[in-house]
Amino acid sequence: MPASQPPPSGPPPAPPPALPLLEELLAGAHVVSLPMRVKFRGILQREALLLDGPLGWGEFCPFPEYGDPEASRWLAAALEAGWQGFPEPLRTVIPVNATVPAVAADRVPEILARFGRVDAVKIKVAEPGQSLDDDAARVAAVREALPDAAIRVDANGGWDVLTAVEALTRLSAVGLEYAEQPVPDIAGLAEVRRRLRAAGTPVLIAADESVRKEDDPLKVARAGAADLIVVKVAPLGGVRRALDIVAQAGLPAVVSSALDTSVGIRAGLALAAALPELPYACGLGTVSLLAADVTRDSLVPDDGAIRVRDVAADPGLLDEYAAAPERREWWLERLRRVHAVLAAG
What we know:
Blueprint: H1 22-27, E1 29-40, E2 43-53, E3 56-60, H2 68-84, E4 93-95, E5 98-100, H3 108-113, E6 120-124, H4 132-145, E7 150-154, H5 161-171, E8 176-180, H6 186-199, E9 204-207, H7 209-212, H8 219-222, E10 228-232, H9 233-236, H10 239-249, E11 253-256, H11 262-274, E12 305-307, H12 315-320, H13 325-343
Parallel strand pairs: 5-6, 6-7, 7-8, 8-9, 9-10, 10-11
Antiparallel strand pairs: 1-2, 2-3, 4-12
């Protein structure tokens, strides 16, 4: 395992504020359902609960299948944004990659056009019901459209070890910057990495789910299972906790999003802006995959980057895209349960 990096010098960070009362959160809660331009993670509507805090807006949008203990980290991140604020930035312009979902190869130009000029592209692979030929065609279409871009693929743990090695050996022909979570578990990541190295296949391994979904997000670094880690603010419990995890892991980090609105992307930008080093373009351009947003000045890429700035939810858009009453109540009940998890420590 690489040596852990020492924490930044200077005064210790201020303790987090006290947990806001549930009644305060419910009073400032807005639930939206935003249409997607293309299916992503199997959904065509992205639901999110927005919280209007004294220091800004926070976003609570764990996917429906996540249990309350895991979702509590997402709420902690939303409360950091609205009730504590973000650390001071070290940079104000964040390079971002385009994201290509698991679409047919002939749709790649249409998807890329929404991002404008980019220097890096993340491509979803290992989609259930699709084949390696589908993946290879999609990756080749991106390379044809962008001959000089850095290409990374994301399998979301969809392969086993043998399939991952076969797939990455084949896809490496276009030149891959790295492969994100090719298999679901840490031991498998380590084995894929070992086999690729032994074969001389130049593909770095990035861990995503093996960081954010583990009870100990540093396991992947201790196991030597990855060359870099993908960090997302909401699943890790906030910007400050993500910064601490990166420092302890001692590995290069890529900041990514969890299919957030611009409110959630603002938190991702805060993390990218506060990291001591930012060696890779970030996966924070995913608002371009939404057909609507909660602000009229969305945080989307311009010339391959997003400038760090605050955003506020627009009352008209909150009304226009308000979730159906039964879905609003589902989210409010979830907020009640998850708040109780945080209150219990």
